[in-house]
Amino acid sequence: MEQALVVGVDGSDASLRALDWAVDEAVRRGVDLRVVCGSSWEWYEGHEPSFDINRRVVQKFADRMVDRAVERAMRRTVAVKVTGQVAPADPAAALITESRRAGAVIVGNRGRGELAGLLVGSVSLAVAAHAECPVIVVRGTEQSRNGAFGRVVVGVDEAKDAAPALEFAFRAAKRRDAHLLAVHAWRCPAHELPDHPIAEDAVESHRLRAQGELTQALRNMGDAHHDPAVRGEVVEGRARTALLDAAKTADLLVVGARRRKGHVGMQLGPVNHAVLHHATCPVAIVPHA
């Protein structure tokens, strides 16, 4: 049986969109949904620690926020069990802790009090970087959030590390009765130099190497590789550009995140950051096993 989903709420419009998306995802998976709010008075609303903040008032506000979120979720569906929890920690820490016993953690792309120029809030980035389960940052257009395109896109880097993201994306596509597009980007350095003669054999070798990497990654999926709804595509150029282009007509973009030795938790690479900040659909960050 799959583990419950966790969604973080803070009263912002973005967190309410994430809540609605999480409810629909819980229905698709047939699992419970836990609504979580981190109530740390030191973090709340972005204020610095202050003895002027009334902790009891903050606690009551958080309790009311979670109650309203649970009510909203239950109005959206009666098909899943929805519970609420106020955690005595800052929001990122609370959700990272919850990730140890969750099938996925779902957050909005921005929270309360975020600076206007931020495309992704600090809490969302922290959770995506350090959670122990997949994290979905709900962003993008209403079309994509409502599943209008019937397509899930997954980025494939190296075949040996691709299995967790591919498996997550394949299951997401099956739940939605959607097509799955696996994208692998490749680059030929000589192609990027102006007025430089390009040997076609060299370009073709880069393309064939990329095709081989993607083919192997898909083969590692076993029988799922033969599903007619699964398609692979190699694209010349930067990975971030290829994925952002594909995300324009996707309901979900899935990318893996490599764990780096010597660092606590999971660190996000430049491609992860790019899609979290700019994708026009919800983004799932799946840690490598």
TrEMBL record:
UspA domain location: 4-139, 149-287
Superkingdom as given in the UniProt entry: Bacteria
Stated family: Belongs to the universal stress protein A family.
Name by which UniProt lists this protein: Nucleotide-binding universal stress protein, UspA family
Species of provenance: Streptomyces indicus
